[in-house]
Amino acid sequence: MAKNGNIQKNANLIWDIATGLGGLYKEHEYGNVILPLTVIKRFDDILEASHNQVLAVLAQKKGLGADMLDKYLKRTTGHQFYNTSRYTFKTLLEDAPNIKANLKQYLESFSPEVRDILAYYKFDVEIDKMSDQNNGDILYSILSRINAKEIDLHPDKITNVEMGYIFEELIRKFSESYGEGAGAHFTPREVVKLMVNILFSDDDEALSGDSKIKTIYDPACGTGGMLTVASEVLSELNKSTNLQLFGQELQPETCAIAKSDMLIKGYRAESIRHGNTISDDQFQSAKFDYIISNPPFGFDYKNERNAVQKEGREGFAGRFGIFNYGNVKGEKYPDVSDSQTLFLATAISKMKDLKDGGSRVAIIHNGSPLFTGDAGSAVSNLRRYILENDLLEAIIQLPNDIFYRTGITVYIWVLSNRNSATRKGKVQLIDASNAFTPLRKSIGKKRVEINENQIKEIINTFSDFEKSDVSKILSNSDFGYTKVTILQPLTDEKGQIIINKKGTVEIDSSKTDTENVPLNYDIDEYLKYEILPYAPHAWLDRSKDIVGYEIPFSKNFYKFVPPRSSDEIFLEIKKLENEEKLLMKELFGNE
Predict the structure, then answer these.
(1) For residues 73-78, average pLDDT
(2) Whole-angstrom Cα distance, residue 371 to residue 382?
(3) Beta-sheet pairing, 513-518 with 446-449
(4) How far is 327 from 322, CA to CA, in rounded Å?
(5) What is the pLDDT of residues 170-212, one digit of tens each?
(6) Dist CA 272 CA 256 (whole Å)
(7) Is residue 570 in some structural domain?
(8) Residues 156 and 188 both lie in one domain
(9) Is the pLDDT of residue 259 over 70?
(10) Quick one: pLDDT at residue 563?
């Protein structure tokens, strides 16, 4: 659904209110006030019509227990929330001298779901801050402006979808106000749209039929944008499919925004849960049809290390036993600075069994998970598990400078355990690094965007599954290798091999080496043709073989550019010399 003028008008009106906070707040702090106020305004406009009925039910049923009363009040409002205060958001303005106390009482009278959200916002702190300035004039002024008749957020005027766009627009504006820190919790919408369309690509189960229920999960959901965009896109593709949204977020204020957005758009706010996904998985036994995420990378997990190791010892009953996959000894875990691969392991653990319909994953990573770690290391074992279990459908390289906080190269990993017959045993690498349009004005470090046509081109490349200049198709085994240990004999001064008392050849430890032999290459043949010509007495200790995997993405798209000839270089130098002479003549005459 395209954004209409009504959406932009309301977003601009609400944004303009933030200017009244100047002096007391820095620009990037405006969202601390405006976002919760927008949520409160929307809820109040929704509840206005049933306000008197709620008060009447409250008086009639006050002897009931809390749970029963909660059900009655929700039934009265027709929503999953209510407010039992004698005030409405508007009537608070009628008692200016007591506006601080009355506002706090009004907020405390919301149903538990809304109170939880406001607690994450820490809005009490902002109320105190505004009321302590100029005898509360700033607080009164801001409430007056958000309640102006020009701003009408009633569902009759603004649908849930439109309200979601307004809220998203405000989040974007506040994200941009951080400058260099922009987008800490905001993945560019075009990237999300690309990921979502790939999730649903060729998914006949979700895109056809009636009354289907599907689930999607984001283990690092931020403000919830990936989840709600997924719902919007699927609704456009098949309105009869009901996509249920689930997510977990560490930062309380960000979690509050996500929960608010869910309630505003008519979803279940309790499906967004607060907590550290790595050490406190809020969806331990849950499986989902789709998993989508842009987890943090470059952050360490030293505070969660004990929890990770404890869960790792559970093997595949937990999420992190995957790092010990294969013929390796001892516990293996990613480097403490590599939290992103823990999210990849989490995503894999949330995939449904194929007998239950299977799952597809779209998750963003930097280049590190492609190649970090030697054979037998935690991350190599993770890659080994993914490829030997045929889970990796594709990796898509995105353009540089596409994100708000980093200009580095990033990739979308697409995983699935329900691959089509043509994809079985295959991995598609897509180079979309040149699929971008420059922005007229940078936003933080974001200098480019992917337009609608470019999104379609990338999706078509993925769906077509054909080799081209930007799409390579390889076998899973192409990424694997066996790390073999090469031994050589110890020799005396005359070059004779030394035999010990046990009758075995002494090993020269200074010459012990390893080689990575591709899985598709016979190891005995490798020894014969690649090692023995240079070390005639060498042999392999096959008891130390370790299988590893790495994904050399760039190597598969490398194009050799022959160096220029010396004649060509000479001619260019002569040209530059002549140009220099002409320039000097213009400056200093004929001398």
Answers:
(1) 93
(2) 11
(3) unpaired
(4) 12
(5) 877 776 665 444 344 468 889 999 999 999 998 877 777 677 8
(6) 9
(7) no
(8) no
(9) yes
(10) 79
In this predicted model, what pLDDT tens digit does every residue of 373-387 receive, in sequence order?
A: 999 999 999 999 999
- List the CATH number of the domain containing 235: 3.40.50.150
| Side chain identity at residue 257, one-letter code | I
Residues 279, 254 share a domain: yes
Is residue 511 scored above 70 in pLDDT?
Answer: yes
Q: For the residues 144-166, what does the mean pLDDT come to?
A: 84
Rounded to the nearest 10 degrees, how much is the dihedral formed by the CA atoms of 256, 259, 264, 265? Answer: 140
Tell me the β-bridge partners of 499: 505
Give the domain range for residue 501.
480-554
Last residue of a domain, one of 148, 173, 198: 173
For tokens 């270089």, what's the residue?
Answer: 569
Q: What is the pLDDT of residues 444-469, one digit of tens each?
A: 788 999 999 999 999 999 999 999 99
Verify that 187 and 332 share a domain, yes or no. Answer: yes
Strands 480-487 and 513-518 turn out to be antiparallel
| Tokens at 309, concatenated | 């190791």
Closest CA to 215 of 245, 193, 236: 245
Q: Answer yes or no: is pLDDT of 1 > 60.
A: no
330: left (phi over 0), alpha (psi -120 to 50) or beta: left
The Cα–Cα gap between 394 and 361 comes to 10
Dump pLDDT digits (tens) for 260-298: 888 877 788 889 999 999 999 999 999 999 999 999 887
Strand ranges across the sheet with 272-274: 272-274, 242-249, 213-218, 290-293, 360-366, 410-416, 392-397, 426-431, 471-475
Quick one: CA dihedral 74, 77, 79, 82, positive or negative?
Answer: negative
Same domain, 443 and 487: no
Which helix or strand (DSSP H or E) is residue 170 part of? helix 160-176
Dmax over CA atoms of the chain, in Å, equals 107
Answer with the one of 125, 152, 173 that is the final residue of a domain. Answer: 173
